[in-house]
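Practice problem 4.
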């Protein structure tokens, strides 16, 4: 999925007040290149500094929802990040993100090239407006 920002906006839109969504944000196998960070598929920059997704949601949508995330170590190495979104009151959100086409790409190219069969999906990079 390229436009993860649109998916999050839609999830918030369809949740009822006090409704919850538990999202598997990302998985990082032990063989992932070190520059990918903890969420290699959903990357947000604000003033050229990488911002965690839950911080972005708190900063931009704090009156409508509460977002918490945690990273859990997997058996056999690596980790995965899950996020809990609680809709505090009615409303929609507009994350106001610009999709960075030049920095976003399919991870399958790296997976095939480096024989890292564990990489899949799309690395979506966004810049805050």
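Answer key:
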């Amino acid at each position: 999925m390229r436009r993860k920002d649109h998916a999050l906006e839609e999830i918030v839109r369809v949740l009822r007040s006090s409704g919850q969504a538990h999202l598997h944000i990302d998985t990082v196998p032990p063989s992932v290149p070190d520059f990918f960070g903890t969420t290699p598929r959903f990357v947000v920059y604000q003033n050229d500094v990488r911002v965690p997704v839950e911080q972005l949601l708190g900063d931009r949508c704090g009156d409508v929802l509460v977002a918490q995330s945690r990273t859990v170590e997997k058996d056999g190495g690596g980790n995965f990040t899950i996020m809990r979104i609680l809709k505090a009151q009615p409303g929609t959100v507009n994350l106001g993100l610009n999709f960075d086409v030049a920095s976003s790409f399919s991870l399958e190219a790296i997976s095939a090239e480096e024989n890292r069969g564990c990489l899949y999906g799309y690395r979506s990079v966004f810049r805050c407006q």
